Amino acid sequence: MKDRIVNLLSSKITNLSAEEISGILEIPPRPDMGDFAFPCFRLAKEYRMAPPAIAQQLADEIEPQDYLSEIKAVGGFLNFYVKKDQYAAQIIENFKSNSSFGSSSMGEGQTVCIDYSSPNVAKNFHIGHLRTTIIGNSLYKIFSKLGYKVVRINHLGDWGTQFGKLIVAYRRWGSKEEVEKRGIQELMELYVKFHDEARDNEALENEARAAFAAMEKGDEEALELWKWFKDISLKEFIRVYDLLGIDFDEYAGESFYMDKTDKVVNMLTEKGLLVESQGAMVVSLEDYDMPPCIVAKKDGSSIYATRDLAAILYRSETYNFTKCLYVTGQEQKLHFAQVFKVIELLGLPCAEGLVHIPYGLVSLKDGKMSSREGNVIFAEDILKDSIGKTASIIEEKNPNIPDKDEVAKMVGIGAIIFNDLYNQRIKDVVFDWDKLLNFDGETGPYVQYTYARASSVLRKIGELSEDIDYSLLTDDAAISLLKEIDRFPAVVKDAAARYEPSVVARYSMDVAHAFNKFYQECQINVEDTALRNARGQLVAITRTVIRDALELLGMECPEQM
Ligand code: ARG
Description:
The protein has 561 residues and is α/β, with parallel strands linked by helices. It is 54% helix and 10% strand. The chain contains 22 helices and 12 strands.
């Protein structure tokens, strides 16, 4: 419908391209303002007329069309009123002609690497990591829906001097039993103890450096310990991923690039980009108003940035990516700007595809969130708490539904995911249980509940016929809902273009609102077979779109809740 109107306008407005017209054409906020509106302000200069006069002139010039009931100039706008039955027919037929509405083949033949989650071994998987995990997973789904091949990469923080410290601490104060029993918590406490003790004992630092140097040289005993710490940590991380239903294609952490950093150093040397600075080897980024990028420390060892440079070379060679996305907190902005600049200075074309995707902080409304011991908060505890709290709400509201545990899991996890994705990623997120679990708020559970409501209506109606009388779908609430449905493909593309899952989250909420309005205003399970069928079809389509939108966020939908 939009294309038709764009074409119609194109035939009269010659100084704008069809694309420009399409970009300007609006969908008014209220149906009485038309189904589409063209603001004439942009034409004022060219036409040497006031916008209302231009709108009137266009209204007079454009011939009546069989699919339009009215073309009306209102102020500086030209409003188009579409014949509603035709509009409904077109949207539904378009939906049905697509085996997976919202998907596209625009990404075919292109690969996107997404580096996300990437927690640090022997450290807790905290709510910040939860957010990169959730955002990264959603971007994976969004890009996949558009036909891209996506490689999901977990760049584990599993290398660096901290492991030297941990090995020393373990050897001095640790025990196998405690580490086995308490996992990451114990490793973290050993690490803290190292720092406490090292304050009055300088020898400890040297010992730790030696332990890490031993690791880098391939010392078996040191590496065995390191590997064990890593396995223990991974086991805990994977528990979180399992709760979230998330998987990775690659767990190539920082240690994976250990033997691949020389190559970067050589390339930089060949290009004459490496300079010495206080014993370290760096790439000067002065011309770009950034501090130098350190590539090798005084003792020749690599650092975080070196391993990221090596990772880019590896990924570019292995996957020939169109884009490589990095989802981390904003505090790493400079790090990625430096690393990307170095790749650009190397003259590598893959530099163009490197994108840092920062996100805001997560803070807690009340400090009283459950944690095992001390003040650290584990993502796993948050997820489990959410499931538990959801189970109590279900127990209170609807204790007789089947598969209660499964539903509590879907909704409890979904609430956390939605809370992380509903606002633009750069905004800070406040973690507030009452808000995010409110079944009537702007929450995941609300949208899931809307899905369950649609499912329940369909169960009551039973079989639907494909023979739809579209003239029965012309109520304002039905048309508004159809318009929302129609936006889905554009929403997915927009979310990908902006690396912004919130676009999809907001959309799911808009569809849910439009559906609930339709549900209130238009009785669905009526006597009249044709009316029941037409409305039932709209419910079925809405249900699919809500499910598919939430799926893009990484959420599942219960049939009852
Ligand atoms: N391990 C890092 C952290 O926890 C994130 C790693 C992000 N990815 C990367 N390629 N640097 O902050």
